[in-house]
Fold this sequence. Notes:
This protein is of the alpha+beta class. It has helices at 52-55, 63-79, 87-104, 114-120, 122-139, 145-158, 165-186, 195-212, 222-231, 233-250, 256-269; strands spanning 2-8, 11-15, 21-25, 36-37, 45-48, 189-190, 275-276.
Amino acid sequence: MKVIKNINNNVSLCLDSxxxxxxxxxxxxxxxKPPYEVDLNQxxxxxxxxxxxxxxxxxxxxxxxxxxxDNIINYARIKLDNPVSSNIVITLADHINFAIQRYKxxxxxxxxxVHDIQYLFETEMEIGEYALKLIKKKLxxxxxxxxxxxxxxxxxxxxxxxxxxxxxxxxxxxxxDICDIIEKDFQIKVDIIGFNYxxxxxxxxxxxxxxKKNEMVKSENQKLYESLINTYPKTYECIQHVRKYxxxxxxxxxxxxxxxxxxxxxxxxxxxxxxxx
Length: 277
């Protein structure tokens, strides 16, 4: 296996014997300057068909969380009839990493559709509950039950392998338009190869899916929402422009709960290292 790019000390982008790109994990395989041939005995696991936009996210995720995500997805593949994309190993690890950060900051965001997910998607919810037990065992972190439902939602979204290309293009256009709104409001140029942009795009895809199914998240987190408004007035102003855009273009009413998550992602997207002033 030929290493063509190092992502971090233990993760590299490689070419297999058929010259197909693969993301490989293995202790120390990223130490040597590429290109070079790596001994297959050093490779612990590989992922094919990883979207390039997710590759940069890997270096920002602790290895133990990537291991946990990999374990969860392997469990999901045993439990589910439908296949799931390899990309979810990365996006789920990123979600878990973010959830643990929120936990450490005592920021618990309620998900009002937990019982609906439990009732309608029993297997996916079981996978989410398995994930919480694994996180508790491996990291001694006690995430709330809502996180099991969020993980279940990741699994549900990943089960659909056959995307409608026309709709996918439309989604990309919507995301580009919203990114333009952010750039205009903050007078910046977003670094589209940055990992925070990848997170933002991933979040927007999930938001658009929920909107199409009329499943916008709603809850009673008014105090948290008001706190964010007071702390980030410029971000709140930008959110109102995004709300108007979605109302005009899609006839969607963005809930306050959706705004909370979107504000957090926009704040990360507009961090100094991820944009050009």
